[in-house]
Amino acid sequence: xxxxxxxxxxxxxxKPFAKAxxxxxxxxxETSLLGDLKINSARLVDxxxxxxxxxxxxxxxxxxxxxxxxGDAVELIRTHAAA
Length: 83
Prior knowledge:
The chain is mainly α. It has a single domain (3-82), classed as Non-ribosomal Peptide Synthetase Peptidyl Carrier Protein, Chain A (Orthogonal Bundle). Helices cover 53% and strands 0% of the residues. The chain is built from four helices and no strands. The chain has helices at residues 3-14, 41-55, 61-64, 70-82. Helix 1 crosses helix 4 (70-82). The longest helix has 15 residues, at 41-55. The two termini are 13 Å apart.
């Protein structure tokens, strides 16, 4: 799976959690989950759980703490997919 496909899946995962889902239409790798999309930290946990379910791997707490942008989520998935 390439980065573009992963990016699209991350956008789909984020849609129900974003306070302003229309912002996802113009989102990029640098888009902040907390700042730009207004996903609160409790909902960010739900995002990580959804990533785990969709991609079939466990995310360590230390890794989850580093997911702050869409690009961070894409890189997390790419790292695990390559393992």
